[in-house]
Amino acid sequence: MLTELLDTDFRPLDLKALDLYLSTVAQVRPDQLTLATPCPDWTLHGLLRHQVSQDQGFAAAARGDGARLRNWRNGDLGTDPLAAAKTSADLVTTAFAGASPDQEFILPELLDSGGFPAALAISFHFVDLVVHAWDVATTIQVPWEPSEELVTASLKVAAIVPTDDRGPGTAFDEQVPVPDDTAPQNRLLALLGRTP
Known about the structure:
Blueprint: H1 2-6, H2 11-25, H3 44-62, H4 81-97, E1 104-105, E2 116-117, H5 118-140, H6 148-158, H7 184-191
Antiparallel strand pairs: 1-2
Helix pairs in contact: 2-4, 2-5, 3-4, 3-5, 5-6, 6-7
């Protein structure tokens, strides 16, 4: 699975995941920003701010400046969360487009030292968008309808996410057990610690 991921250009998929995420964020009303999300300790405002910060951090990593944690922590929604989300999406898309396929991305939130191949790093951003789109949709009670292509690719990324360091304060919660015949999109959510 890892070899397949390393041989995949996730940039086109990341653009589609951004469309899914942004179309969900576009449905958020200002009075919903204080709602609790499926992510422990995050209001909807906090979740949207987190994704802006992630976009900025991944953009910095693509430019060779990912090691500084402040590049991952300065997301600001301002007075227009959708505009902030679109701006950070444009930033990370431009940075990914300029990245070399054999480049190493430094992701300090995931690895204390060393880095990840570009394809793998971009796959992490991609799967985060798909699942955070669900988090937002669930919070504001609107449909989450990723394409089969997004779900299939996300399942491959989710399959390599380590399971030994999960829970509060980590990137993903513990896996949720689901029956074998669970729909793929719900299996994806369960793999990444969400309750479908």
